[in-house]
Amino acid sequence: MQAVLDAGPGRHNRPMQKKEDHRTRVAAERRERMRRRLFESALQLAAEKGPAATSIDDVIQAAEVSRGTFYKYFDAPDALFDALALEVANEIICMAEPAVLPIADPAQKVATGMRLVIQLAMGRREVAAFLVRLGWPGVRNGQVLLDFVQRDLEQGMKQRRFMPLPVPLALNIVSMTVLGSVHAMLGMRSPRDFAEQAVASALRALGVEAKEALKLATRDLPAPQPVVQGLIESGSAARAVRRAAQPN
After folding, report:
1. If residue 12 lies in a helix (H) or strand (E), which one and from where to where?
2. Cα–Cα nearest to 101, from 193, 222, 5, 195
3. Domains plus CATH for the chain?
4. Strand residues in 100-190 grouped as ranges (E)
């Protein structure tokens, strides 16, 4: 009898708990949709005008939201663009890293990762233009890019695949090659193998012999991992990667 009495309130509470869980989930989904809406608008504006020239009024007009709504999520345009840069960088890494991890050779890992990041950024021109204007966030705060590349650079140095270099210098070679390649490919008619040539140059700067560097930079690329409902259109990005992997 006591067990029945103890179980009674729990049974009555379950419908209320389910309703509260549903409300919480719906509210979270609504917040995520609004956050994405602001990101999409900011991405387009930053690619066209640059982050410094984009105001709160520009964002709320493009996103068709109120000023109050904007301030519920971000206290200034700088905060929005910092969050957007991390979102874009993390999404690119989430797509590229699963394809890079199975590779045993650290030099091949670095070469493959650089090419995938370039091609994924170029899969959507707004993303490429945004990264060029704002810069890769790991270059500024030393986190995102370090997590993705540092282990491979350090492993490569230990195995003498790369020459001994200060890690910040090695990271700078990688990050500047990626951003420089994206910038060049956006602004001019670049050769089909521009990314491969740039990556080979970076490998040579890291200490890889020229002939091997070119070989590592021109191997077939693995397919990236799609991010469902991400800011980057995974379909177009994946097509860009496949095109780049095809022989001339």
Report:
1. helix 2-49
2. 222
3. 1-75 (1.10.10.60), 86-248 (1.10.357.10)
4. none
For residues 123 and 48, give the distance between their C-alpha atoms in angstroms, rounded to a whole number: 17
The C-alpha angle 124, 230, 52, rounded to 5 degrees, equals 60
- The pTM for the full model equals 0.73
Residue owning tokens 């609504």: 30
Q: Ramachandran region of residue 64, left (φ > 0), alpha (ψ -120 to 50) or beta?
A: left
State the 10-residue block means of pLDDT for the chain, 248 residues long.
52 61 71 85 81 84 89 86 82 86 95 92 80 63 61 94 94 90 83 93 97 96 80 50 42
Return contacts of 170-173, CB within 8 angstroms, 24+ apart: 170/206, 171/138, 171/145, 171/146, 172/139, 173/202, 173/205, 173/206
Task: Determine the longest span between alpha carbons in the chain, in angstroms.
Answer: 82
CA separation, residue 202 to residues 66, 114, 135, 160 (Å)? 46, 10, 18, 16
Q: Residues near 144 by Cβ (< 8 Å), separated by ≥ 6?
A: 86, 89, 90, 93, 136, 137, 138
